[in-house]
Amino acid sequence: MKRSNDRILTTHVGSLIRPQPLQAFLRAKQAGKPFDAKAYESCLTQSVAAIVRRELDAREEVATRMDSVCIGPISYTGKAELERDIDNFKAALDGVKVEEAFLPVAAPASVIPDRKNEYYASDKECLIAIGAAMRTEYKMIVDAGFILQLDDVRAAVTYDRMVPPASFADYREWVATHMECSTTRSRDCRPIVCVITSAGEAGRGRTPPTCRSRISSTSSSR
Fold first, then answer.
1. Are 144 and 101 in contact (CB under 8 A)?
2. Which residues pair with 147 in a beta bridge?
3. Residue range 117-121: average pLDDT?
4. What is the mean pLDDT of residues 120-130?
């Protein structure tokens, strides 16, 4: 992983907003409506390439791509889609000069943030199952030669939901459990960057400024 030893390397956090033509395909796909699959694949490839070019125009030197109820066992089913995304990203990077490249993905806590568990014996068991499934994605990204960036906005915004009535000690216990799951499931998946988005960045402004540093100290102690 590159260090800013001689100069500060610049990038943005997380994935970028999808271009409008791609959003139209995604809305149709998510709604179960018919769409031109071949045109969608072509639009996706072109969108990734266009985003990388815009990053270079903005002088960003680290590139990235555009980023329920549990009633049964959780498993990872997105290998084909991830392989396609990796291939598109590699194609977009071919012939351009960047210091390095990363792919942002959700940490286990943020994968299904408002899930209702009706299958596993406990929420912790459900979280562990999510982490085990996501390890497939984490390892595929690193094996493809990219930095793995884990985005975990839930680690910050959950404070707003828990405290009060719960105590800060309860929150620390919650976040420590989730950080342990993230580090366990990303073990051997190096290099890795973990990004904990503040509550203000997620659109909720009540979390005190000290919360971010406390979260960091919790995660680093694990």
1. no
2. 102
3. 89
4. 90
Looking at residue 121, the DSSP 8-state letter turns out to be S
Query: Per-residue pLDDT averaged across 78-92, rounded?
Result: 91
Full domain range(s) for residue 154: 20-220
Whichever domain contains 56, its CATH number is 3.20.20.210
Is residue 5 one of the residues assigned to a domain? Answer: no
- Tokens 């907003």 appear where? 17
CB 11 within 8 A of CB 60: yes
Model confidence at 209: pLDDT above 50? no
The DSSP element (H or E) to which 80 belongs, if any, is helix 79-93
Could you check whether the bond before residue 164 is cis, i.e. omega within 30 degrees of 0?
Answer: yes
CB 46 within 8 A of CB 89: no
Residue 150 forms part of a structural domain: yes
Q: For the chain, what is the largest distance between any 2 Cα atoms, rounded to a whole number of angstroms?
A: 54
Q: Is 186 contained in some domain? A: yes
Domain total of the chain: 1
Give the separation between CA 153 and CA 95, rounded to whole angstroms: 34
Bigger pLDDT: 128 vs 215: 128
Q: What b/e string do you get for 20-32 counting C-beta neighbours within 10 Å, with b at 16 or more?
A: eebeebeeeeeee
